Description:
alpha/beta, Rossmann fold, 4-stranded parallel β-sheet, globular
Amino acid sequence: MSARLISYARVSTLEQELHLQLDALKAAGCKKQLTFTDQASGSKAEPPGLNACLKELKDGDTLIVWRLDRLGRSLRNLIDIVEQLKSRGVGFGNFILKK
Length: 99
C-alpha cells in the first residue's frame, strides 16, 4: 500500500463553515474520501471525526490539517497527538492556502 494523505478539518460552531478548510486541503492534494471533519468545539473530549481520522492513519501516511488549532484542543493536546503520530510512523503537516 502506498503512502496516503489523510486530512482533518474542524469548525467550532454550527454557524461556521468548513468550505475554506476543505478547499485548502483539496489544493494540497487531499482526497475527499480521505478527509474527516467535525463541527464541534475543540474542547469536546471525543470528536468523532478526529477519532475516525486517527484510526484510519497507517504507517507511512501523512495527516494534513489546514491550521494547527484545528487539530488540538490545547498546545499539550496537539503535542500529544503529533507525538502519537510519530510513534506510529505517520507524518504530519499543515497547509494554509496562500492568496
